[in-house]
Amino acid sequence: VSPQSLLSRVKGPEDIRTMPLGELAVLAEEMRTTIKETVSANSGHLASNLGAVELTLALHYCFDFRRDRILWDVGHQAYAHKLLTGRAADFHTLRQLDGISGFPRKGESEFDLFTTGHAGTAISCAVGLAVADRQAARDGKVVAVVGDGAMGAGMSFEALNHAGALGCKNLLVVLNDNSMAISGTVGAMSNYLSRIRTTLFYNEFKREVHSFLEHVPVFGEKMEVVFEHVKDAVKRSMVAGQIFEDLGFRYFGPTDGHNLEELIDTVRDVKLLDGPVLLHVLTDKGKGFDPAVKDPEQFHSPKTFCVETGKIIAKDDPATKETFTKVFSDALIEMGERDEKVIAITAAMPSGTGLLPFQEKFPGRFFDVGICEQHALGLAAGLATGGAKPVVAIYSTFLQRAFDQVFHEICLQELPVVLAIDRAGVVGADGPTHNGVFDIAYLRCLPNIVLMAPSNGPELRAMLQFGLGLGKPCAMRCPRTSVPTAEWAVPPVDLGKAAVVREGGDGAILAYGAMVGPSLAAAEKLAAEGLAMTVVNLRFAKPLDTELLGRLLTEQPFCLTVEEHALMGGVGSAVLEAAADLGRADKVAPLALPDEFVPHGPRDVLLRCLGLDAEGIAKAVTAARTAIESRTNC
Ligand SMILES: Cc1ncc(C[n+]2csc(CCOP(=O)(O)OP(=O)(O)O)c2C)c(N)n1
């Protein structure tokens, strides 16, 4: 942020309230430039943030969020909010280790009331805050800013339903409608919003319609009833946002989200009204940066890029390297070609989960349900019951939303649904809301499910094929990284069977999924120190290979489990439980994540800090050896 800029003078939102409109417009452009330049260097969410600049300015201009409250849904569009709330000087540290978070973060600022990253939560939490404020006789409005994609989430609907019935007077929902989620928004609600968008009904017009209908002549009582019906029907078909009004909200809009003057006037007006109010604002994703306007999907959350041309520069993950996601994407197409029963499902993440090529190739066998993870799983259950072979490609962190559907719709019915879990493990710059480090724990406790994790590309293919033929629920977890270039033997996948990839008699490392590679590297290091380690590719967290485990616990001095997952409930826990059954739990040492949220930062740096790289694993082996030897000597 240059010291000559207007932005450098903004220490807090109060500083913008004294600025004339002309200066605010300059400030908006400075904020856009800062966002664009920072994201180009650090990666991050771009297009949504560029689209929300004027809206954020108008909200901070009209409200005082030290007294009023603001909640950003997902929070990936809150960069302008960060710039206005005292974080401009540190903004260059965005998403870096110990730097500014890419999402609202409690503790980072008094203006961030929640640490967020998941979609659909803002209205719900805002209703709670609104009720609490009312009960405490506290003044001020609660504002929830929600995208059109997030508006389609079940939780948003549940909250609208409740707020409308409660008649929350102090609630304002701002619908930031750019007709995009990460990809185009899907669903009937989205179609409804786009009809409003294209027919451009304004409140002015709405008032005219109402007044016209009031003057329609009425003859006799019967005719009056008929006319009431007709009036209702006409109003319904002509008045924008009727659906929200029917739910108990006062609807305003659609308003141009880039016309600062109009936006400030409108926000100022709706602020004075008793709610619940829904203000519909139209914004352009990527506004002000041509490459992002042209390809808002690519620029939703781009890797680093050239700020002049928009050309992506993938520093950390060269395109030459194949990711687990890419291998899954290719493998699913092959399997889809061989078996027309294979159906792919995503909850608003077709690009992130690698399903775009499948969608292109088999459009009739692909479903994007929007940000509705629960429905994605219910849909899969129905499809499986009908004889299809559904594969739900989903991030580990978002599958959390659908835990009950995995339990009730899938495992309880023992249905053959494949959960292709992506971003399982530490994800990096998106931070704690996106780390996928709990899935083994929350799935392992469910009867009937099989849990597996591939350690490399060929194994991923083999496991996907195996899962599709299994005839019962299964989940395959894959990390957010490239597949290892060093290959190791991948024997045919056999239910509940692990694979020994290296043999030695000084102890065993039992690694799960992506941790096989670094465990082998650790074994190499230890070999240089004279230790011959066995390395086991566990393959299945459920069922565990108890036969092999029993043998290892007898033959080896100790077993170290290694996983990119929380310690509690993970593979280490599973091995400890099985070892306890065999009376040998004292021989097991688990290496996993501690009972705390892993912050944002580069994935490799975080893994190193967590001791989950080759060096850390080698250290854990030495520590386990010492601990177990000292126990034995006692
Ligand atoms: C529960 C959940 N599922 C999926 C995501 C991934 N995600 C992040 S932003 C986004 C799109 C949100 O669209 P919208 O609310 O319209 O906001 P926009 O990006 O268009 O501003 C998605 C799907 C998420 N954050 N949370």
Q: Helical segment tally? A: 25
Measured on Cα atoms, how large is the radius of gyration? 27 Å
What is the number of strand segments?
Answer: 17
What general form does the structure show?
A: globular
Distance between the first and last residues' Cα? 62 Å
Percent in strands: 5-15%
Mean pLDDT across every amino acid position: 93
Describe the largest sheet.
7 strands, mixed
Helical content band? 40-55%
Structural class estimated from helices and strands? alpha/beta
Q: Which compounds are bound in this model?
A: thiamine diphosphate
Record the strand order, biggest sheet. 7-6-8-9-11-10-15
Ranges where pLDDT stays below 50 over 5 or more residues in a row are: none
Secondary-structure map:
Layout (H helix, E strand, L loop, with lengths): L20 H22 L4 H5 L1 H10 L6 E4 L6 H9 L34 H14 L6 E6 H4 L2 H13 L4 E7 L10 H12 L3 H12 L5 H19 L3 H5 L3 E7 L3 H13 L4 E6 L7 H5 L29 H15 L3 E5 L9 H6 L4 E3 L4 H13 L3 E7 H4 L3 H9 L6 E5 L16 H6 L5 E3 L4 H14 L3 E4 L21 E4 L5 E4 L4 H13 L5 E4 L2 E3 L3 H10 L3 E8 L4 H11 L6 E6 L9 H7 L4 H20 L1
Parallel strand pairs: 1-2, 2-3, 3-5, 4-5, 6-7, 6-8, 8-9, 9-11, 10-11, 13-14, 13-16, 16-17
Antiparallel strand pairs: 10-15, 12-14
Helix pairs in contact: 3-4, 3-12, 5-7, 14-20, 16-18, 21-25
Bound molecules: thiamine diphosphate (TPP).
The site of thiamine diphosphate has 25 residues, from helix 6.
